[in-house]
Amino acid sequence: MASAALRCRSPLVTTTRRSFHSSSVFMARRDSKETARARQVPFNLMDLEPPQTEDDTTVAGHLMLRQHRQLLYHMRLIEHEIPKLVAFRKPFVPPTPKTPVVVRSISYGGEEHPATLKRVIVVPVAHLPLKDDSARHSLKLIAGSRWTPTPPRDSGIGSDAPGGEHGYVKISCEDFPRPAMNLKWASDALDRLIEEANKSAGTLSDIPTDTRHISSKARKSKKGQHLRIRPGKRVTIRDFPQEWLPNPTPQTSVAIP
Predict the structure, then answer these.
(1) Stronger pLDDT, 90 or 46, i.e. the higher one
(2) Which residues of 59-97 are buried (b: 16+ CB within 10 A; e: fewer)?
(3) Could you count the other beta carbons within 10 Å of the beta carbon of residue 229?
(4) Residue 181: pLDDT above 90?
(5) How many structural domains comprise the chain?
(6) What range defines the domain where residue 123 resides?
(7) Does residue 155 surpass a pLDDT of 80?
(8) Whole-prediction pTM value?
């Protein structure tokens, strides 16, 4: 019993434990080269996306390629097809009094546009088949705002063109789905206008020509023609009456001693 008590009273052998914060830095595990390199690279959200495996371009790239294809298509036409049009070349023949009607149209190079259906005809009154001056005066009254003393700005007729002493008539139409139908209506309207002017010749001779539409257009443009009631052609120094000018006196030479 005594020996057992002595064994129980013997001191116990204990081991000391170290905390993590008291350990040496040399005992820590070193990072690999990949881990150290990854810590140095800044974080980027684009790295979270999966890698692109498709080799197709973007929408903007497709639009650019389409523009290049259209350009090459027209360049091929210029190179190979346009020289063939030389066989259809015709010399320019100016219009004669027998063909006084000028037809104007608008084209957008093959693109669809509502204005491409419109047709406009312009004709000088002096070249129309009218009986006499009274018929021309009746045509000006019946035409109304379609008649102007000067050629329309977009008619292609110059201000010094022959046949403009009685003004011009302009008729346009864009109500039908075909350009030929609009041109046919404008041509028929001109024929009806000529017929009515020949019928009413002499009956409207006491009515003055209405120029209110010309004055209204000049006022709206505000380019100087609306001032001092001078619509139409602007007054210049060439319009000064010649009879108001003094008679030129011959200059006498003075001898210098």
Answers:
(1) 90
(2) eeeeeeeeeeeeeeeeeeeeeeeeeeeeeeeeeeeeeee
(3) 8
(4) yes
(5) 1
(6) 102-228
(7) yes
(8) 0.56
